[in-house]
Amino acid sequence: MSHFASYAPTAHGTRDPAVEVRDALEDDVPAIAAVARTRGGEHVGLEGRLAGWVRGDEHVVLVATRHDEVIGWASARRLRDRPDAPDGWYVSSLTVAPQHRRRGAGDALLTRLVAHADARESALRSIVNATNAPSLDLHAAHGFVEEGRGPTFAGIEFIGGTGVLLVRKPPISAAGSVATT
């Protein structure tokens, strides 16, 4: 059973104007964990890790809400010294609860993460399972391009065996240079 959205590239939902994105608060941790669990997998110690990410300065943690209910979340963090992934900022955990998909929450979360990276003139990378076509399409719509494919990236192993490393370069700055990490 796949925990990814069904791939239906011509099936577009209706953007929900009640969806808002904001920085996560420590009080959001249980709701973020509930959304994270919709992806399946092991989640031992999840709430503790999430609380640390929200409190710390190594992650940017966002939530998508609808009428104050957390319906999705995403984070970005800086990875360094990984033998199978370049140093830099990475999208992590972009997840929308299944009953709230195709209403603009994922798009809004990724938009904010891209803005975070652009403000720092930093490239933004994302690692996506090759079988997750909806996520690949969403990233492409935000200017991400494929940088590589492999069985692991940043220590992540993939269902189906292949991960896709995506990168979005920042826009050219006023000084005319482009940052790459």
Automatic annotation (TrEMBL):
<keyword id="KW-0808">Transferase</keyword>
<dbReference type="InterPro" id="IPR000182">
    <property type="entry name" value="GNAT_dom"/>
</dbReference>
<dbReference type="InterPro" id="IPR016181">
    <property type="entry name" value="Acyl_CoA_acyltransferase"/>
</dbReference>
<protein>
    <submittedName>
        <fullName>GCN5-related N-acetyltransferase</fullName>
    </submittedName>
</protein>
<dbReference type="Pfam" id="PF00583">
    <property type="entry name" value="Acetyltransf_1"/>
</dbReference>
<feature type="domain" description="N-acetyltransferase">
    <location>
        <begin position="19"/>
        <end position="171"/>
    </location>
</feature>
<dbReference type="GO" id="GO:0016747">
    <property type="term" value="F:acyltransferase activity, transferring groups other than amino-acyl groups"/>
</dbReference>
